[in-house]
Design goal:
By secondary structure, the protein is an alpha/beta fold. The chain is built from 3 helices and 5 strands, in the order ββαββαβα. The two termini are about 15 Å apart.
Amino acid sequence: MLIKLYKFGDVLVSHPAGREAYLAMQAYTIKGLNKDEPIEIDFSGVKVLAPSWFDEVITKIAENFKNVKLLNTKNSSVQATLETLRKYSDFKL
């Protein structure tokens, strides 16, 4: 399953927006998927990513699926968010 985050906007910054995006994914994208299903999360097109949005969406997906891969993470905002979450939370991708 490929999840293209740009479909949720190019500025992904708040807990409420992240929560809304995750609920939409639960209802339409990841609903009924096996926990072993490979999930690829594509960050292309994302200009700004905040840890709060990431934590509401990506962390929850990573907690519920065993095989999650992050794609196109070279954006400096994405890199900073990944670094922050790896340093200050239990996020391990």
